[in-house]
Fold this protein.
Amino acid sequence: MTINEFKIRAYGWQELAILYAPNLTPESAGKRLTMWVKQNPHLSEALRQAGWRRGQRVLTPLQVQRVVEYLGEP
């Protein structure tokens, strides 16, 4: 059995969300990640400072790093 290690790279929003909530549908996982970001003002600000904009579909590696800093690795 191999253990896949999480890599910091560009991810689609739903792609990253699914890693955090693999048992949810992609749509539900995306909504959950959005909720987590909205409910955490420090994470929201860190993403904004990293260049994230509402509606952005692909996160840069820096933005993914910010999510992981606040939510931990998926």
Remarks:
- DSSP finds four helices and two strands in the chain.
- The chain has one domain: 11-71.
